[in-house]
Amino acid sequence: MKNNSLIIDLRRLLPWHKRYASNTSTAMMWAVWLFLWRPLLIVIGVLSLQKQHLIHQLFSAFGLGIEHGISALLACVVALLLWTNFIPSKVVNKTPVKTMTDYGDHFDLPVQEIEQGRQQKISMVHHDDHGKIIRIE
What we know:
This protein is mostly helical. It has helices spanning 16-50, 52-86, 100-107, 111-119; strands at residues 125-127, 133-136. A hairpin with a 5-residue loop joins strand 1 (125-127) and strand 2 (133-136). Helix 1 (16-50) packs across helix 2 (52-86).
């Protein structure tokens, strides 16, 4: 097994009773899944004995559906490959790091007040009626 595998398989480290419970529950779920298909298989069996041409038409229609599904899947793959290779993506521009003068200009406050507020353990920010910062203590 590869060392850099994305699948983490630590099943062998589980105690035997947990592995037994997991295997048993998996087998029971498969049995229930097969049991749910039983009525359909019985109907197909009865129809195949009485009218063989219906089964042939059913399987040909099923095959046609699979064929169309695979064609649609391949078309989607080709479209996505073309999209990723030929349509340019938006470039994310990194914003430049802000300096204290930038903050002072934005909030219209002196740089000394902002630096004092950053050095304090507790700061009180005063706002005006419109939510703009007017003073930092």
